[in-house]
Amino acid sequence: MIATRDLVHRRGDTVAVDGVSLAIDDDEYVVLAGPNGAGKTTLVRHFNGLLDPDSGEVLVDDTRVQEDLVAARTSVGMVFQDPRDGFVAATVGGDVAFGPENLGLAHDEIDRRVTAALSAVNMADRREERIDELSGGEQARVAIAGALAMEPDHLVLDEPFAGLDWPARQSVMERLTDLAEAGTGVVVVTHDLRDHLAVADRVVVMNDGQVALDAPPDDAAGELDALGVRPC
Predict the structure, then answer these.
(1) Which of 37, 54, 64, 225 has the smallest set of CB atoms within 10 Å of its CB?
(2) In the structure, what pLDDT confidence band is assigned to residue 232 with cuts at 50, 70 and 90?
(3) Each residue of 157-208: pLDDT tens digit?
(4) Phi and psi dihedrals of 109, rounded to 5?
């Protein structure tokens, strides 16, 4: 479980996250929606210690994130809105393998994870290609594969479909659905709910740094427009 308790994060004089208390179970598919500037990305960057709260706390599996960053970052995989923020290797295969290698896994297990993750984003035959020679959409798919290779308890994706063409979008969506059905928690940060409402367990909408709505998709649907969220 990921849990925040009275979480506050400030940027100078601006309160980006304002007293948010939220719990996400291990097997939930949660859409975190809201207009630009609502605090969505700032909130999820606390889930694995990329940001520190000014007050309040964040727990992963009942352990405060700052007390065990390695455990938090193993349990919570993160895919950034700009995939270039997360690349650490020159080639596709090298980047996807980086996380599992740092877990100290056996070579065969690393290879299995890399193959499965790249297959999930339709890039199984492109392991040796340089990341800097890929298109933006292809880079996004590599970033998603890198997170999948960690086989985390929770996968957090910030606008994961930005730059993806339709086949890639469908492939990734199918993979996210499969992961959720197999028990992986999925958190998708977005302002556009297309595709997600049919599979999500909850829709959480943020506005001005606070949770404005937390409800099942059917209950949330009628309130989304008023909160600046496109339901489809």
Answers:
(1) 225
(2) low
(3) 998 877 677 877 787 788 788 888 888 899 999 877 878 888 999 999 999 9
(4) -70, -40
Q: Would you list the domain boundaries of the chain?
A: 20-37+69-227
Between CA 114 and CA 127 the distance in angstroms is 9
Class of 20-37+69-227 per CATH?
Answer: alpha beta
Burial label, 109 (beta-carbon count in 10 A; 0-12, 13-18, 19+): exposed
Phi, psi of 164 (to 5 degrees): -85, 140
pLDDT at res. 22:
97
pTM listed for this prediction = 0.86
| Greater pLDDT, 102 or 109 | 109
Query: How does DSSP assign the chain, residue by residue?
Result: -EEEEEEEEEETTEEEEEEEEEEE-TT-EEEEE-STTSSHHHHHTTTTTSS--SEEEEEETTEEGGG-HHHHHHHEEEE-SSGGGS--SSBHHHHHHHHHHHTT--HHHHHHHHHHHHHHTT-TT-TTSBGGGS-HHHHHHHHHHHHHTT--SEEEEESTTTT--HHHHHHHHHHHHHHHHTT-EEEEEESB-TTTTTT-SEEEEEETTEEEEEE-HHHHGGGTGGGT-B--
